[in-house]
Amino acid sequence: MLRNLFILLLFSVNLVHSQQTDSVAYYRNLFPNAHAVRTKQHTTVTIKLVDGRPLITQEQEEEILYLDKMANANAKQSLYQSTFVKVSDIEAKTLVLTDNGKYKEFKVSEFTEKDELNNSFHDDFKSINFIFPQLRKGAKTSLTYTEQINDPRFLTTFFVNDHLPVISSKLKVIVDQGVTLKYSEFNLDQLPVNKTVKDTRKGKIYTWTAKNLEAPKNENNTLGYRYRYGHIIPMIGSYQAQNGKVSVSENTDALYSWYSSLLENVNRDSPSEEITKKVGELTANLQTDIEKVEAIYQWVQENIKYIDFEYGLGGFIPRNANDIYAKKFGDCKDKTSLLHAMLQVAGIESHFTWIGTRELPYTYKEVPSPIVDNHMILTYMDGDNPYFLDATGRYSTLELPTSFIQGKEALVAKNEDTYVVMEVPTVPAVKNLFHDHSKITLENGVLKGVGESEIFGNQKKAAFYSLERTDNTHSTKQFYNQFFRKGNNSFQFLNLTEKNKFAYDKPLGVAYTFSISDYYKEIAGSIYLNLNLNKKVLEYSIDKKRELPFVFKYLEAFNLELELEIPAGYRLEYLPNDFECHNALLTGSISYKQEGNKVLYRQKLETFQLVINPDQLPLMRETVKKFEKAYKEVLIFEKE
Predict the structure, then answer these.
(1) CATH of the domain at 563
(2) With DSSP H G I counted as helix, E B as strand and the rest as coil, what are the percentages for the chain, rounded to 5?
(3) Are 68 and 35 in contact (CB under 8 A)?
(4) Which residues of 46-73 are buried (b: 16+ CB within 10 A; e: fewer)?
(5) Whole-prediction pTM
(6) 259 in Cβ contact with 413 (< 8 Å)
(7) Do residues 335 and 324 make contact, with C-beta atoms less than 8 angstroms apart?
(8) 3-state secondary structure of 429
(9) Of 375, 400, 425, which residue is a domain's last?
(10) Number of Cβ atoms within 10 Å of the Cβ of 105
């Protein structure tokens, strides 16, 4: 009898371990590359009308099963709240399967609240921090909490899938009669999402469900997760208040009406004496408005430090220009506020402008809510020509909007009641030109050269940002050695003269000398030399397994010229044919020409698209192969 009980007990213990092991093994087999799976991802949004106003709560449920020993790295977690969203009723616990076949709960008992940002900017954005105890392989975490949404424009985006596999994903939105729900769906086409809409006595219930979703693939240099993850953006279009209909996120008009209200009290005080004096100094000898705009724009970029604080209500209301000028720092809307005020002092009209960076895939028609924007700039109109002034960066000119807003819609304030939606242009590649001309000679097995370069636009800005981080001659030389590298790893960047360093309105000029050892071959009296010292197109190589779009920060152009002196006592035996490649992605060419005792080489390249779509990846691979073949061509010199 006792023996049988012992066997039964042993079997039960083994069964428990087997259940735990099988659960982990099952999901490891189903998702072999996953460290964890999100077994539950449920959100229930309830929108009630109370005294003619929407009362909004969001109940969040999340469970994660950890599949390997890395589990404890995820023990620290945070929730966030602000003016718009208040968090309550938090329950967090770790569930560990024990020998008796039951899960033992280890509840989180300590939640620490922390101000996330400097009080001089925001005092409403806080994090709630906690640690899941006893987290290990095979353990589950459970987290539930309630969010009170205090502004009807800020319903939370629901992501159907996640960077982890998701076993059960569910969004339920319960709305009272009198509330009109809008929603926009993104990237759901390829997901097994089931959507239902049910009428009830009190209103409607909208439900989206999906099961057993793999984590979306991720690759480098691709679009942000909002372009790839399936998600739903619920919005309150309007609601019926006691005195009539109230429009919330019904359309762009409603969004602008709210944005405009946030500007009502901005810069009501007269500009300070310091601002007025500074504007006078900056514009004293300038004749045209556009010259004055450029001078003030440059000064704000140079002298007001950018602090990236974009949360809470402060993420939408610009602070007063006098305060920003006195403190000498601010975020995007603060720098915009100061720039607007300084132009006003100069008698120049400008326009507050809201915009979403390239991280966000939305248009104002699709998402007429604050989710569509995460940035503020200023627009100046020179006649019918708009200039988009983003003072968060440095080295931006009027003709060079920052790379992360190019191609995006901008909501431009005209006055209190009217606006216009414009598209920020994509700066053409020729404006972002790298032009390099080198005179080279072959001496005792070493290729020696004297080079001169001019660097424009976004390529210049990128160089300047890197040069800001160099603090001595050695580190500066190291940067240029990498930046101008030619031929092979023996390239040595020698003497250096810089021109227009950190200048806004002129190209960066660099004069230099260099040498490359062991580059050309001398065999049996013949010299073999490859003049393709810069194989730029190979940087665009696309892995054959790649599936996602390939993204460039900006369009770029290259004009690379070499002037080779034919070695004394040699004649040119073979000159490669010229090469050209033109398609929707780029245009490029390589040309060779002999003039007297010199060979002139030129490689030109110009890109056309910021995003290479998946169906264009084969074309890019084919293009790179063509250049790769052309890059192998060599000159041959024979002794006379």
Answers:
(1) 2.60.120.1130
(2) 25, 40, 35
(3) yes
(4) bbbbeeeebebbbebbbbbbbbeeebee
(5) 0.90
(6) yes
(7) yes
(8) helix
(9) 425
(10) 12
